[in-house]
Amino acid sequence: MDYTKRLNELRQHLATLPCDALLIEHPTHLLYLTGMEVSIGKVVVSQQEACLIVDGRYFEKCCQQTLYRTILSEESALKNWLAEQNIKTVGFDPDKLSYQGFLLLSQSLAPAIAVTPVESPVQKMRLIKDAEEIICLKQAARLGYEGYEYIVSLLQAGITETELAFELEFFWKKRGGKKLAFDPIIAFGANGSMPHYRAGSTRLQSNTSVLIDIGVVLHHYHSDMTRVVYFGTPPTEIQMIYAIVKEAKQRAMELCRPGTLVGELDQTARSFIASKGYGDYFTHSLGHGVGLDIHEPPTLRSHGSFSTQPLQAGMVITIEPGIYLSGIGGVRLEDTILITETGYENLTEPQ
User: Fold this and answer.
1) Containing domain of residue 236, as a range?
2) At 56, which CATH number?
3) pTM of the full predicted structure?
4) Average pLDDT over residues 19-42
5) What's the rounded Cα separation, in Å, for the pair 10 and 8?
6) Which residue intervals of the chain are DSSP H helices?
7) Which tens digits make up the pLDDT trace of 120-164?
8) CA-to-CA distance for 263 and 121, rounded, in angstroms?
9) Is the dihedral of CA 127, 133, 137, 140 positive or negative?
10) Which run of H or E residues covers position 300?
């Protein structure tokens, strides 16, 4: 990854903000900027210098990178560095710092240094994936799909949801997967009516639907996909809602190109499902961004802060409409989509 390029881009954003330096604490932002994976730390960037402040657990590892000056976290470390750089105002992301954290930060830097909230430019930078990130996302998606094919091959009467989840994790880790992107959603039958169900002790029986929503982390990047298979002969209603969800997803995907507003995708899929009488049973947003986090901006909703966000080449999003019927089960179909200059590329194989 080109961390120098990212630092330079961050400084371009800093030039437009009402502060002399940026304080960044979100662990995923730190990973994006430095390549260092830490649970607690700070990146501080001015136009001239940049530092990474970490505690003793990460100090030696972080000293291996040379783009940021690594400083051992002590009570006065941040204040001393800012004073060295003659910083008068430091900006922070209010979405990532609690009010109590803000008060503590302000008190620790007063009176010489003022603290002001600014919208995080790092989140904006992460919206558009570069070529190396796209390679990582494609590799993660490929490994994710291989895991799906593997657990489908294990379906047999009597196996539990948890057993499949365990086999899946073992399969991925043997092939280089770092960890699960999230707890696998493997839902037999009526369990599928709960969108964020977690694998339990239910055993697979004949003539049962199997909803599989899974993802793996590879090279820090996440995969995400959902499929529904039927162990036996599916009843008419399951076949019908499957066809509706599949068509809704396809209609939204056909709009995936630069310039389309995020809200249009959600509205298109949601309106189609509603036209078939199942509008009240599609109970979540159409999708979300994917990258270093499993859920990133933009959130695909027809209302809210991202609804007027135009798609741009380099964005990676999920499209995942669903219909959920209590006591019967659910159908959700999800693909991970790369927005290209001319349209889109499906990173997860079509079902």
Assistant:
1) 128-346
2) 3.40.350.10
3) 0.94
4) 94
5) 5
6) 3-14, 27-34, 59-62, 77-84, 99-109, 121-127, 131-153, 161-174, 236-253, 262-275
7) 899 999 999 999 999 999 999 999 999 999 999 999 999 999 999
8) 22
9) negative
10) strand 296-300
